[in-house]
Batch of 2 targets.
Target 1
Amino acid sequence: MTAAAIAVDGGDLSIGGGLLALLRPALTLLEPDGVLAVLSRSGSVAADLASWCRAERHEYLGAEDAGNGTTRHLVKRGRFGVQRAGSFDELPERADARTGFAPHGSVVEAGGPRYPFNLLERDRVAPPEVAELYEQAVAGQWSALRDIPWSTIPQHEPALELAVRQVMTFLAENELSALYVPSRFIARLHPAYVGVAMFLATQMQDESRHIDVFLRRANATGAPPAISSATTSRSLHSLLEVDDFAEASFLLSVLGEGTFLDLLAFVERFAPDEATAELARRARIDEARHVHFGLAHVRHALAHDETLYSRLEASVRRRASTLAGTSGVPAPVQDALTIYAAGGSEPRRVAAGHDAFRELLVTMHEGRIRRLRSAGFTAEQAAMISDLHTPNFM
Amino acid sequence: MNETILLGAVAYDPKVVTIWEGIRDYFNESGTPMDFALFSNYERQVESLLAGHVDIAWNTPLAHVRVKQRTNGASLSLGMRDSDRDFHAKIVVRTDAGIASLADLHGKRLAVGSRDSTQARILPLHFLRQEGVDLARVQVIPFDTDLGKHGDTGTSELDVLRALADGRADAGAIGDLIWVLEQAAGHIDPARIEVLYTTPGFDHCMFDALPSLSATKREGFTRSLFAMRWDDPTHRRLLELEGLHEWMPPREEGYESLIAALAE
């Protein structure tokens, strides 16, 4: 809001005694060329106000007697420091790199430096659902220390405990990539879309907590983490190379974390103890939120950019080609999931565990197709993309 | 013929290097080849301009008036800062010194800046004489700091304010800009120091050149100079350092009081 004329009562304040704290905000509210009347009973103001106006390029118009020992000074607001008022109500379609870290809608003085943000288009970065997802994330935070019944972990058969350690090691390694990938985009996001950065920050907090609980569970018996396979490493490395935010959301959240929802449901279902079941359940609820954001992001971006379909498809193909020659789920993970589902190493139970593992792969494929369809892909595209998805799950 | 403008400026502060390197880069990018040479004092800079060693000199009012006089008025004035127009000097006093009018300065201690400072010495004393103050009856305390810099550093003006605050002087002469900026910065106790008198306005710095400056250089210089904009982030930083919002065309009438003061 701006005004054409404003009056302030400066009492007996001098320029150096606090008058500026009344004068400057009043001038900011004025339109350029608007006039400010300053009532003053200070003798020095008459001498100093004109000099101050000269320094700040406002125009001192003069003074008149206002009676009772009061003088009315008139100041015309200059055109420098004229401020651009942002529209506060909605996110800008395209953000201005010169507004920097100024909160969206604030009055931004001209002449500031240009910031190196390059995610500047609302429809490519900020789905409308993000505010609600952020609120859900804040409400859904939990404690790795307090909310998992750690004391209930019994002494399992060594083969089963080893399987648990291997599954937890694998989960932690994948979650580390999910911690790092979003961080690469926060620094590039224009602060006008800070809601997205804030959501990604909750995602990173979630991943931190997951890494914490998975490693606590892996080390529950005092043993170190198990094997990290080259397949997993290669798969996660290829995620870090993605530079496009929508592509990264697609690969990490829609496909990777989407697939992890089914994996975590599996881990909860076959959990050998209450603590392991609870940490899988809690992690899956968090991951569902990340998948929801990824889907919203990709769906919203696809609605505004037809060419994104082919780019996403191409990025899945590119990633598949870097993983070519990798056959199937990393062996240590495959074996561990089988023993985990079997609940031990007794051969008949292992057969059932192996069936459960194969069933998991089918469930994951179906889940990916369902999510891809919901993002707007055709059945054919969805099936092809799901087939090309990394055998590492993430 | 070399069309690169060589500009002279006085290195009164390390920031002068930043300012002129920035302006040089901007000039060169905007199609006006320019470089600069720094001098340690205005006397040397004026002589170098008159000798043709530099094309343009960024001069204080005192240096500008000397160039005008030495060229019999033929020198070219090319531009000035908005802040160079309507400069004033102030006589500020301690509130406990018992000085209510200029006549009360008689018998009191008056701190003044360097003898080559237009705003803190030459013109305030000139205007006090015009107002009927007999300077022989005033104890003048001079702060001749940074001689040769013509008061650019502001050091002698800060010396004046310190002398007032410490009670080593009853009154002091300073420029109006430093007075309002020191107040805005909260460095002045308004209960102890106040303004007694504000001089009539006068103008400050000017870009000076000899009449032999080529039209190409003159036009290139003013075109690039006046195209600098406050809302351009690169320009704004330089303008802030140099203490202006906008470059202005030259005008000569603002130097009449200084010419008169130097003739006294």
Target 2
Amino acid sequence: MSAPLSADLAQIGKSVVIKGELSGSEDLYVDGQVEGSISLKSHSLTVGPNGQVKASVEAKGVVVQGKLEGNVQASDRVELRKSAVVTGDISTQRIAIEEGAYLKGKVDISGKAEKAAGK
Amino acid sequence: MATVAQNFMKLFRGSSSGSQAETPQVSQKLTRRSSGLGELARLWESETPLCVLDLGSTSPTNITFFTGRTHKIYSEDLLVASTEPHLVIKDEQGNVTLDSRKFLADNLLYPAAHFDVVLCWNLADYLDESLVRPVMGRLWSVLKPGGMLLAFFHTKDAGPDSPCYRFHIIGKDTLEMQKIVMRREARRGPTGAIHTAIIDGFRLQRVFNNRHIETLFRDFASIKFFLARDNVREVLVVR
């Protein structure tokens, strides 16, 4: 699946490697390697199919198609697509997990939750 | 050295470089009534939030089931974790075995007395011999006093090719069983020829008798057996 085209979307391509603290005020698409922390409080993170993220994540929404190792705090929603491999704890209001996704960790639905059904 | 994640991807989806994997067959789903699950249902139908550990394959159904009832659910697929290549060692007699210390250094890392319920499903029947007792010992320690563990065991009528299932909770005492299917992986080799390999699911390692099961759970305070018509023994133990 190719990266979505959007003027308000920052993209990290699959050859890019970043180590450190990432923060921003726009949506972020990661198809490369990120190690450290990612903070996008009111925006969304998408880990693309080639993405390898080893970081704590704080965002409004998180979509994972690749690999994510670290705890996830999403104020709105987390989606694990069928190719997702996630190791870490997830805290969010809603979660959708496709058949085939791999998760090693905790799922904690908090707040005024609408519990999304797994796909 | 391959990671657990890479092994998992190979097992269920094939490697991501230089290979073409056929789409896995959709496995037929069966339903079965579970007396053990029915006993546990009294716990999660109460208003007290629980901490639950699911040791089967990641199940969106189970995660939705528990989070919809305000419980916390932990998911950890120990069977896949046991396929990690770096666990393979040789014992003093030179026999190939798995390093249980490394396995427990990487898995089941939880505080003591953390869980109200542990869902073992058929783990003990399919897990490598070297890991069974250490894993049960660790599960005892992470269960709260009074916490309960549910496990399924084949009876003596099960053959070595008994399929390994995933379990999804779909009702108060009803499970949906989904067979872990074999997949055929097509891979293009260095000469361009296409090689095919059949990747097996998990094989039944042993059949426990009642005495073996009692010994396995000897550190637990109580044990209850339920014998089902499909030749499965359900065991509910209390720490």
